[in-house]
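Friendly challenge for the regulars: who can give me the structure tokens for this chain first? No prize, just bragging rights.
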Amino acid sequence: MTSPKLEETLSRLKLNKEVKDVLIIDKEGFTIRSTMGAEETAAASKKFAQLLEVIRKELEQCDMKETPQYIKLCCKKYDVMISPNEQYALIITKTPGDHP
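First reply, four minutes later:
Bragging rights claimed.
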């Protein structure tokens, strides 16, 4: 079950022409919501859950006063923006921007 606010946010994200996909997973890697097909969602959820686990462990060791609001990864095929919190992570893939 998703909230109206979540649906509104997903709708706004999908209107952005640069946004390819949106994925929301919980801290165990289970899919909460996705704009991808079932097989792609399952593969992406597993992949990003593993990545988030590594990121969280590394951030714990950094002794930072504040946790980053989002993490951006730039690839040739797409850019990934990840906004993690204690309960879930919002993951957005978009067309790549200009990279140096």
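The chain has a mean pLDDT of 86. The CA atoms of residues 34 and 41 lie 7 Å apart. Your move, everyone else.
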